[in-house]
Amino acid sequence: MTNIYELRRYGKLSFLIASAAVVALFLYFSNSLINDLAVQERERMEIWADATREIVSATTMPESDEPSAETDIDFLLRIIQSNTTIPVLLTDAEGNILQHRNFKFPVAEDEADFGLPAEPRNVEFINRKLATLARGENKIEIRISPEVCQYLYYEDSTLLKRLSIYPYIQLLVMLAFIAVVYFAVLSTKKAEQNKVWVGLSKETAHQLGTPISSLMAWMELLPDMGVDKDTLVEMNKDVNRLSTIASRFSKIGSEPKMTDENLNTVIGDAVDYMTTRISPRIRLTWQPGAGAIPVKACVPLLEWVIENLIKNAVDAMEGSGSITVTSGSGPLNAFVEVADTGKGISRKNFKNVFNPGYTTKSRGWGLGLTLAKRIVEQYHSGHIFVKTSTPGEGTTFRIELPVDRHLL
Question: How far apart are CA 88 and CA 97, in angstroms?
Fold first, then answer.
């Protein structure tokens, strides 16, 4: 079962890499298109600059050349007038504005809102535009003659500006769509998983009910059959434990009854029960925190979590070692730690151990820690996690529960 989560991890990584590659290609081609359009606009402005130079040159030609110059000027004027989308500024060598075109001047219902009359305001607007464009790269030199030089400044067209931000808008829309789909799938998967847990738990409790009832009836008959009293006591403990287990399963999927409890008492009972049911070669130590630790808890379910952690620790040590169960409390949370000297867990699997189906045992179902996480986090509003683990040295699981402050 471990391979499933390894494949899932690699699958997520592959998906992220593929997504990043698609986004990179999308931005690359979009930027290429924008750059091509920018080059075309530059070429159009160079033609516009050439037309301006020819007009100026034609107006300074000798009288004998006027007819041909007029013909050229009509054509050149059409070139200049054909530009209706790209804002342009023409200045002399000293920076004085000679001509401007296609700029949208600010308009107000009340001219006093700008503090200036309309014409001075437009002049100031154009001067600010010139100062801005002079700092950019959209500048073309127009050499009229060796002594006369003009400069053409231009802004990107509205179309080019819109196209420049379009890839990023589309990227945000794509990311939002992917996020919505991801969380929708995740929520659906979680809901289905919850139904499986509830169905499995209810059915298990139902199936256990009949043989447990039968065993309880036999327990009443065994004293009359001469069975040893000590044996009956131990058998009765196990039958009661089976009944408790069935009750635990029946509570999964239902809202358990939470009561005011001393955490030390709950954990101590679970440890006492497990002490006589593990190998004598494994030393189980219980170190309760000082004083009472008040919590809201469902005792059967919380005991189940501790028993499960102890059983996992026993399996991890393969016959011998030590387990230490510790409790304590801080300003906001109470905690329980179960530390063992087993084979440990690699850091990459700290979260995977709580996934359904994850197990390192040949016959394990991989459900114990998943149910433990559900009980702690969903029913007790707590948190369970691998605090520390070193392969070959051991593992420490930590449970944190909110302290019931009003009971202090």
Answer: 11
- Residue 366's nearest CA partner among 383, 352, 387 is 352
Per-residue pLDDT tens digits for 367-400: 778 888 988 998 899 999 999 998 888 999 999 9
The C-alpha angle with vertex 76 and arms to 72 and 80, in degrees rounded to 5, equals 170
From CA 336, how far away is CA 84, in angstroms rounded? 75
> How much is the pTM?
0.53
Concatenating the DSSP letter of every residue in 191-260 gives HHHHHHHHHHHHHHHHHHHHHHHHHHHHHHHGGGGT--HHHHHHHHHHHHHHHHHHHHHHHTTS-PPPEE
Tokens 């050499």 found at: 143
β-bridge pairing 383-390 and 394-402: antiparallel
CA distance 250 to 201: 6
- The alpha carbon torsion through 282, 283, 287, 288 (nearest 10 deg) reads 60
**Which residue type is seen at 100?**
H
Among 170, 172, 161, smallest CA distance to 34 is for 161
Task: Give me 54's structure tokens.
Answer: 């020819």
- Per DSSP, 46 falls in state H
